[in-house]
Design brief:
binds D-xylitol-5-phosphate, alpha/beta, binds zinc ion, 34% helix, globular, 8 helices
Length: 214
């Protein structure tokens, strides 16, 4: 399991120490949650913070944009050091164009689906995607409860990917801990995002190691 700890739950007063912890850990990526107060009812952080993370990070940055008009920020996301640029399907009228722009900018293109958006909406674009992120909470806040039906979406998406003969990865984000990771791992997820479970744990590095075992 590729673990992508979300710095949304990190201590921003000592972000460098939390990044160092992720660097030392078995995490695969570092998940950066950008919220604009329009697409989601919350505001998190933007490019200056991502740049600061990129300067310290020794793992690729997985940037999850919970914003309207993400197509307007492709070069800025690239310039601040993202490896994966992840946009919401619900925020993109011209999703195919946005995905191509992300790839043309030299990044890996990922698309996120909200809990109520069916995986079938991506059938015609799947082979173009490095990764699909299935939200297992409604985006906007850390620390919410995992929505149980997500594992079924993972299974349906896994079958679609096999059918397409694609190597698109499946990531799950929201309410992931050592209980819920098992459910999405069994359903065929390749990666999980974990925020509060990691950063509230007494030993975040060990917690990441436990998640990565799945
Ligand atoms: C929610 C964000 C998540 C969040 C996950 O809108 O996309 O990445 O940080 O937090 P937990 O793991 O606490 O649910
Ligand atoms: Zn996220």
């Amino acid at each position: 399991m590729i673990v992508s700890p979300s710095i949304l739950s990190a201590d921003f007063g000592r972000l460098d120490q939390d990044i160092e912890m992720i660097n030392r850990s078995e995490a695969g990526w570092i998940h950066c949650d950008v919220m604009d107060g329009v697409f989601v009812p919350n505001i998190s952080f933007g490019f200056p913070v991502i740049e600061a993370v990129a300067r310290k990070a020794r793992k690729p940055l997985d940037v999850h944009l919970m914003i309207v008009n993400p197509q307007n920020y492709v070069s800025q996301v690239r310039d601040c050091g993202a490896e994966i640029m992840n946009v919401h399907q619900e925020a993109c009228v011209h999703l195919h164009r946005t995905v191509q722009a992300i790839k043309d900018a030299g990044m890996k293109a990922a698309v996120t689906l909200n809990p109520a958006t069916p995986v079938e909406t991506l059938v015609d674009i799947l082979p173009d995607l490095y990764m699909v992120l299935l939200m297992s909470v409604n985006p906007g806040f850390g620390g919410q409860k995992y929505i149980v039906r997500t594992a079924d979406k993972v299974r349906r998406l896994r079958a679609m990917i096999a059918e397409a003969g694609s190597d698109t990865l499946i990531q799950v984000d929201g309410g992931i801990n050592l209980d819920t990771v098992r459910l999405v791992a069994e359903a065929g997820a390749d990666s999980v995002v974990a925020g509060s479970a990691v950063f509230k744990s007494t030993d975040p590095e060990a917690y990441i190691r436990e998640l990565a075992r799945y």
